[in-house]
Task: inverse folding
């Protein structure tokens, strides 16, 4: 277990370093002079020179990288050009919204996928199984922004049951908060359901053919206990991996959905920063999200080991 | 100061504004009978959540709209597009148009209790004039040579050169008054925690979500404002912005797409306002290189653009065709009879007379709207035999390429100001032609224009100015440094329950007089 963790951490460190180089180059290799771009029509020679010095643009690239990396490691991702706020502070202030969105999305997607997956594996070929298959195909081939638009049209404009936009923070009341989250969460979760469902179903079908299930049946255990207690755990290994990887994918989905429902999360911040030419903010967000993605993958690996006892003994696997 | 020429008071502004407001409400007769009601929350949807709200770094329309409500300026633009005293009570100007004496209203206080007096005005100008603060208005405030308090409520500005546009400058960023106590205590924080004199006080700003203001109970205009609260919501996604409005989450939507405006005009549940505007969109050409160093090619560009067609299709019939640098909301706006008409046959003749093949690159802002416009123009120019390559760029890069004169032709917009001097002098005076960065992007030089521009800025009489700038438009229509497309139109769509909105040509909504039915 320990060796596995150490290898994991070493791999993560390497990947993070690569990420840092890429995020750095993202801004450093922008064609043209960053100071000129930032100042646009106000670019007098003195102001350009001052900003170049402030951003360290007058130094060679490797020196800038080392300097920048040093800052990043001490928690300084730079400052917003317009407001002068710390990039990290701004990102952290927007993070709870995105985390809530992703967490609720996973919860809803799993809440739908697990029971349906188990059921359609147990009653393979039944009407329920066929119906879920068709439903999955439809959802799989529809992008989140289409689902989002349809939901806004139906529930916000026509029926007026739920708000089209806006965000009520948890601090202002859990009811309002959940209400503002329903449509965004549903539009993100509906695309994740088919992946989880089909994966669990196929794993489950394999598990249900194993001898120990036959044994449990022979012992006369009720079906629900066999499905939930004996079959689900060994069938969910791949699901856990995919749920973990999806955390990162959902960050991507969040960009679109946050835009669409005007949720003040990290995804919306990224789009805003691009529109407002906040190059350093954009760089900070890319670095931050990539880091989160890598850390989540590491954690998934560890959870995986916890669920599968075979992986806990070093050297055997 | 030897003699005083103009004396204007602002007292007539408020009744006039209220009348206009009621008319703008659409139901002149029944609305007049209605008493404005106090209370309620107005929610406004805007195209963006700006990074900061601070007059010294305010550029875009949305940034200016966010500042309105909390901040006010010494002068304001009235519904006719003229700069009139606002926080100032009156002003006088010397014969040589170089010395302005501005008298402030008594008893105006900032939200933190600081009085608005001569000292506060001077502190504000010290802030904007300090180059270290990087005010976008720096070139305007650098016109001021001397600034002093005559008495506690009177400030005198001495300018470098005659400037009839100074009242308009005082209605723009430099004239916006920020509490000196607040910006001295926290020079950085003031940009996210604004303190002004306006009808509403800042409450909170949840970034990316909403900007909340509450009624200023000590407001200097008696009886105003009517609303308890104003909430501004910057929503970047156009569909979302429009859905929020249609579902009743916002009462007003600013700068929606023209397609949406065209739909809303047909719907009786909503009111569409289309303020005159000061600016223009056009094709800006670089006169220092081939092919645009030849007037015939520039004229061919203008005469092969079927603007009526573009207006009907891409623009949904909303904006007006442009003929001059003076938008329809400006006092000097007037027809330009000699502006070249759409005539592709004539364009072909001109190109034949030019004799060489014409090929060039057109730069444009990489938004979908500009892209469609650029592609349509490419096609229209192609039909008369010009070969056009398109080059999209992000907005800052486009601006940068223009002001450093690295372009051949660009699709570009100037949002405009109320005074014709600001719309022409930086763009067409030859003193900037070979300066980088400058707004005379295309190296345009014409001694006759220089003379007219210098005369225009030194003339106060509105009738005379109108004549001078008519002559400017006429010459520009011959020289064609720009081929105009449309005048800038910032539309406002609102629900019928919003009353008392004064339609001002700059397109900004003043919240003080608004009430909800």
Result:
């Amino acid at each position: 277990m320990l060796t596995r963790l150490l290898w994991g951490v070493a791999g993560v460190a390497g990947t993070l370093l690569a990420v840092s180089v890429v995020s750095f180059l993202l801004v450093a290799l922008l064609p043209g002079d960053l100071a000129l771009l930032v100042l646009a029509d106000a670019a007098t020679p003195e102001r350009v020179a001052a900003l170049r010095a402030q951003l360290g643009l007058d130094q060679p690239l490797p020196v800038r990288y080392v300097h920048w990396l040093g800052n990043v490691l001490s928690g300084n991702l730079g400052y917003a050009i317009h407001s002068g706020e710390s990039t990290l502070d701004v990102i952290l202030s927007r993070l709870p919204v995105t985390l809530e969105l992703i967490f609720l999305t996973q919860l809803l997607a799993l809440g739908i996928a697990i029971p349906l997956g188990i059921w359609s594996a147990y009653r393979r070929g039944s009407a329920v199984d066929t119906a879920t298959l068709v439903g999955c195909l439809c959802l799989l081939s529809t992008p989140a922004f289409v689902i989002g638009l349809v939901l806004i049209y139906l529930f916000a404009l026509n029926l007026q049951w739920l708000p089209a936009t806006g965000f009520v923070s948890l601090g202002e009341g859990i009811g309002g908060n959940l209400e503002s989250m329903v449509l965004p969460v549903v539009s993100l979760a509906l695309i994740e359901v088919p992946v989880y469902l089909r994966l669990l179903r196929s794993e489950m079908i394999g598990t249900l053919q194993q001898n120990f299930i036959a044994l449990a049946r022979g012992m006369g255990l009720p079906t629900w206990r066999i499905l939930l207690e004996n079959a689900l755990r060994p069938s969910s290994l791949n699901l856990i991996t995919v749920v973990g990887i999806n955390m990162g994918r959902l960050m991507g989905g969040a960009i679109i959905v946050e835009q669409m429902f005007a949720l003040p999360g990290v995804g919306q911040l990224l789009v805003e920063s691009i529109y407002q030419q906040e190059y350093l903010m954009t760089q900070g967000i890319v670095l931050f999200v990539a880091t989160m993605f890598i850390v989540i993958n590491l954690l998934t690996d560890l959870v995986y080991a916890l669920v599968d006892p075979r992986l806990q003994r070093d050297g055997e696997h | 100061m030897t003699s005083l020429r103009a004396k204007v008071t602002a007292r007539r502004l408020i009744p006039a504004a209220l009348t206009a407001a009621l008319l703008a409400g659409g139901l002149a007769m029944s609305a007049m009978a209605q008493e404005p009601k106090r209370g309620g929350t107005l929610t406004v949807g805007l195209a963006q959540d700006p990074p900061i709200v601070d007059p010294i770094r305010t550029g875009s329309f949305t940034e200016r709209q966010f500042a309105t409500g909390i901040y006010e300026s010494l002068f304001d633009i009235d519904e006719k597009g003229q700069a009139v005293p606002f926080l100032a009570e009156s002003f006088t100007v010397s014969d040589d148009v170089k010395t302005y004496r501005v008298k402030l209203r008594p008893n105006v206080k900032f939200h933190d209790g600081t009085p608005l007096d001569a000292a506060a005005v001077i502190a504000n100008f010290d802030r904007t004039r300090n180059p270290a603060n990087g005010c976008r208005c720096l070139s305007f405030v650098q016109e001021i040579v001397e600034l002093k308090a005559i008495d506690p409520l009177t400030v005198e500005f001495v300018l470098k050169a005659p400037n009839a546009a100074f009242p308009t400058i005082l209605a723009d960023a430099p004239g916006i008054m920020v509490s000196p106590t607040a910006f001295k205590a926290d020079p950085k924080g003031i940009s996210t925690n604004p303190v002004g004199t306006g009808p509403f006080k800042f409450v909170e700003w949840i970034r990316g979500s909403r900007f909340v203001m509450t009624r200023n109970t000590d407001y200097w205009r008696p009886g105003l404002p009517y609303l308890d609260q104003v909430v501004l919501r910057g929503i970047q996604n156009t569909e979302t912005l429009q859905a929020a409005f249609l579902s009743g989450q916002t009462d007003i939507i600013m700068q929606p797409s023209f397609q949406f405006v065209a739909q809303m005009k047909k719907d009786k549940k909503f009111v569409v306002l289309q303020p005159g505007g000061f600016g223009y969109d056009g094709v800006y050409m670089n006169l220092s290189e081939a092919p645009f160093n030849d007037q015939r090619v520039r004229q061919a560009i203008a005469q092969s653009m079927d603007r009526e067609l573009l207006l009907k299709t891409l623009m949904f019939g909303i904006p007006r065709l442009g003929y001059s640098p003076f938008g329809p909301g400006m006092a000097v706006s007037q027809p330009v009879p000699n502006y070249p008409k759409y005539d592709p046959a004539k364009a072909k003749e001109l190109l034949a007379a030019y004799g060489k093949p014409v090929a060039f690159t057109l730069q444009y802002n990489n938004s979908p709207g500009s892209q469609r416009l650029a592609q349509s123009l490419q096609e229209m120019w192609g039909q008369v035999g010009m070969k056009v390559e398109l080059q999209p760029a992000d907005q800052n890069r486009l601006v940068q390429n223009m002001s450093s004169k690295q372009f051949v032709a660009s699709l570009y917009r100037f949002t405009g100001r109320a005074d014709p001097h600001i719309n022409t002098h930086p763009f067409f005076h030859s003193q900037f032609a070979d300066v980088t960065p400058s707004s005379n992007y295309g190296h345009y030089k014409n001694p006759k224009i220089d003379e007219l521009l210098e005369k225009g800025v030194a003339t106060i009489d509105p009738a005379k100015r109108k004549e001078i700038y008519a002559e400017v438009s006429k010459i520009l229509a011959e020289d064609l440094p720009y081929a105009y497309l449309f005048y800038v139109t910032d539309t406002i769509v609102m629900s019928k329950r919003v009353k008392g909105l004064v339609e001002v040509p700059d397109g900004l909504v003043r919240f003080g007089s608004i009430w909800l039915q």
Q: What stands out?
A: The mean pLDDT of chain B is 90. The CA atoms of residues 297 and 351 of chain B lie 6 Å apart. Chain B has two domains: 3-195+491-516, 280-487. The two ends of chain B are 50 Å apart (CA to CA).
